[in-house]
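Extended Data, panel c. Modelled sequence:
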Amino acid sequence: MTLQEARSFERNSLFQLSLQMREWDEMAKLTDQTIPSLEELKEMSVKHLLSYHGHQNYLIFE
C-alpha cells in the first residue's frame, strides 16, 4: 500500500471498523483458548438484551 493509499484508507468512514475487524480476525487464529459453552453464551446474550432493551415484552425460551 502506498502512502497515498494509506492516507485515503485512514480517511474512510469505515476505517476504525476495519481495524477492529482485523483485530478480531487475528484473535480468531489463537489456539488453546477456553471458550464458553453454548449455555453460557445464551445466558450472556439474554442478560445483554435485557439490560440494553429493558425487561418489557421479552419471552425467554428454555
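The two ends are 50 Å apart (CA to CA). This feature is highlighted in the accompanying rendering.
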